[in-house]
Please model this.
Amino acid sequence: MKRLLSALVAVIALTIATVSTAAEKSTLVEIKERGTLRVGLSTFVPWAMRDKQGELVGFEVDVARQLAKDAGLKIEFIPTAWDGIIPALLAGKFDVIIGGMSITPERNMSVLFTSPYAHSGVQLAAHTELAADKSSFEDYNKRSVTLAVRRGAYTVQTAKKYFPKAKLRQFDDEAQAFQEVLNGNAHAALASSPKPEHMAIQYRDKLYIPFDERLSRGSEAFAIRHGEFDLLNFFNNWILLRTEDGWLKERHDYWFTTLDWENQIAKGQ
Model:
């Protein structure tokens, strides 16, 4: 651990020293001179939320705080509506988006993405008794199987892709879809992770996760402005080192596979 952190400090120092010689200040140099990393994010459970004292908590918040701490910087969070977060980055209102943003070609036309630091996806939670004899994709891809999903969500496409023979019941929100399974009217519900995992913890006597791997996999990364390759190098090296020492996985598991944090969170999120 000490060797990894020493390597991280060395990388940061080398990167900043290199870019300081450039004729025009880069964002990385501006961050160093300011002494504060400005992070844009949107609240979305469990990526970023408000606790009962009104403070930001969540996976993204842990990631940004640790990144700033490792670099000897202060941190400033700038909550921003999701549909305006990329325009706000491009307008210079903050240095980086650390907000559970998945890499897509369309977004990549507007921003640079770092290496992924997290992976999301679609997961399935099954009824403990109704689906007790089902353990494979083939078991769920039958006309006798009923699946519940939220209407219009990406999970509809995922269900049709992997389970085209199953009956699909669509609801206006995820709560209704999971209630259908809890009532014993559907074998399983599909939703974006970590909703199925959290529901399986909350209703451990009625729901379980039958598959170790998610049905689809997304890749989340930091987003920065085009042309900021020194900042990209800095973030990529931090992600590499914190992946290798297991810190990113430990924090991701805490927020996505447990509900140990649930009592900290303000209601209505």
Observations:
- The mean pLDDT is 90.
